Amino acid sequence: MSELHxxxxxxxxxxxxxxxxxxxxxxxxxxxxxxxxxxxxxxxEAADALGVTLGQIAKSVVFRRxxxxxxxxxxxVITSGDRRVDEAKLKPHTGxxxxxxxxxxxxxTGFSIGGVSPVGFAPSEGHAAPQLFIDRxxxxxxxxxxxxxxxxxxxxxxxxxxxxxxxxxVIDVVQ
Length: 175
Hints:
alpha/beta; 5 helices; 25% helix
């Protein structure tokens, strides 16, 4: 298991990690983000670093809404690390979706792929924050871990806390 460190003074960590830390503090979330000694860019890497099951990783999957054309909005699905999003189940809630590349993800969330958090967004000017959904499969677990704005950042929470923090609807969207 990788060593975990409570957050250090704000100016020593990347901006995305700081935004998530501030968002969690503003919401009175009891668990501040932790900094992993190793980057966890995938759900499996995060699970290995934390010593938890793959399903306990609340991975963020970003899609691009096709109906919006060049000004496509983002859709972010938070699901268990051991599940795959079924776009057909998501489509009734969002319309047609396409892949989101790294530039799109960064512009619409303020985070780089591998560190997309469900809180603390900083979308680029002229773009709304992503439309969020939580997959109900996360509720299989008492404790889950989400990205905290950087591949080295994570925070602990319950699925119910995730729902409260994000205000996102809980739906069935996995294969």
